[in-house]
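Long-time lurker, first post. I've been practising inverse folding by hand and with some scripts of my own, and I keep getting stuck on stretches where the structure tokens seem ambiguous. Below is the full token string for one chain I'm working on. Before anyone asks, I'm not after the true native sequence, just a reasonable design that respects the backbone. If someone could post their per-position residues I'd love to compare against what I wrote down in my notebook.
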């Protein structure tokens, strides 16, 4: 366990103060052990995946941050020879590495996550997705550690209570995702590679470049958050080092490289107030704010 580790480098925003204690868990065993240690020492803990959907406060986190990071060679286990193989994936598997390995194994069904940063654990917790698909469409079962009781349990897809960018794991932070089972199909890897190439090309044109945490707000019903923010004139508007993207108004970019979490929070609050006043719509954050 390390002490006083800056979290900025572990987030895609490149923002955030130090974690009092910091530990990298490479397997679900290590993750379970780390949570037990936190509980025994009455330390508040926080699970960090790829850090691509979080804003860490400038003060940091006064407890133990457990970063989950599965090693590339141990991303998943396949039940051999099955026609529709069921695969258990450790929660710290990076989505990018995962789809690469799946394609190498001639497995199809997860190509659509191409370009989404982060881990499978973080993606399941937030039911990450694209307009056509989300994690709820592919997850069969999830292996969970209840940090309250320190017992493990299997949650079926139904138990996960997936909704738009929401799940039971988002509502109960004691439910830690250890691994997940997804069902895929056998396929020619050439087809998968082509699909991934096209998705990445499309995303390269649409997704803003620079340090961000993806979409800041959830889309309200029938209208995108980006459209609302644009209507309110925020494109390009900045506070300190944080700026509303010119390309996609639901992205805030740390455009100086040294924006403060406070700049981002002030911008978020201003956007929420102005959008509410002008349109009557209440925006809700998609990102997770830590240590505020
Ligand atoms: C450039 C960019 C593009 C993006 N595009 C998309 C997109 O197209 N679609 C989309 O849905 N999202 C998108 N995102 C957001 C982000 O990539 C996803 O939400 C991703 O799934 C977050 O995973 P993570 O591992 O980085 O989670 P983190 O940011 O590390 O954590 C997010 C939350 O999940 C919790 N968590 C993480 N792992 C676990 C676990 N094992 N058990 C319990 N809780 C856990 C954390 O405690 C935290 O509260 C984008 C982000 C960026 C920066």
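-- Answer (accepted) --
I ran through it position by position. Result:
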């Amino acid at each position: 366990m390390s002490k006083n580790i800056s979290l900025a480098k572990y987030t895609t925003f490149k923002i955030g103060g130090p974690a009092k204690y910091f530990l990298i868990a490479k397997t679900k065993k290590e993750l379970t052990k780390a949570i037990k240690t936190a509980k025994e020492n009455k330390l508040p803990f926080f699970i960090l995946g790829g850090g691509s959907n979080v804003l860490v406060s400038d003060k940091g986190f006064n407890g133990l941050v457990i970063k989950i990071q599965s090693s590339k060679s141990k991303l998943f286990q396949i039940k051999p020879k099955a026609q529709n193989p069921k695969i258990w994936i450790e929660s710290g598997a990076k989505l990018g590495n995962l789809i690469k390995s799946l394609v190498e194994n001639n497995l199809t069904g997860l190509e659509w996550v191409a370009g989404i940063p982060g881990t499978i654990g973080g993606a399941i917790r937030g039911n990450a997705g694209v307009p056509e698909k989300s994690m709820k469409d592919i997850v069969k079962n999830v292996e969970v550690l209840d940090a309250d009781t320190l017992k493990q349990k299997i949650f079926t897809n139904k138990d996960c209570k997936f909704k738009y960018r929401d799940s039971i794991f988002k509502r109960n932070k004691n439910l830690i995702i250890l691994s997940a089972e997804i069902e895929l199909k056998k396929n020619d890897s050439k087809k998968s590679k082509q699909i991934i190439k096209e998705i990445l090309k499309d995303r390269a044109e649409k997704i803003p470049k620079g340090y961000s945490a993806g979409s800041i707000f959830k889309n309200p019903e029938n209208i995108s958050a980006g459209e609302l923010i644009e209507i309110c004139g925020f494109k390009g508007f900045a506070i300190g080092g944080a700026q509303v993207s010119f390309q996609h108004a639901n992205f805030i970019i740390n455009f100086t490289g040294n924006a403060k979490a406070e700049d981002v929070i002030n911008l978020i609050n201003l956007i929420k107030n102005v959008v509410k006043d002008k349109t009557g719509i209440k925006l809700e954050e998609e990102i997770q704010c830590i240590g505020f």
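A couple of notes from the structure itself: The CA atoms of residues 78 and 166 lie 28 Å apart. The chain has seven helices and 16 strands. Happy to go over any region you disagree with.
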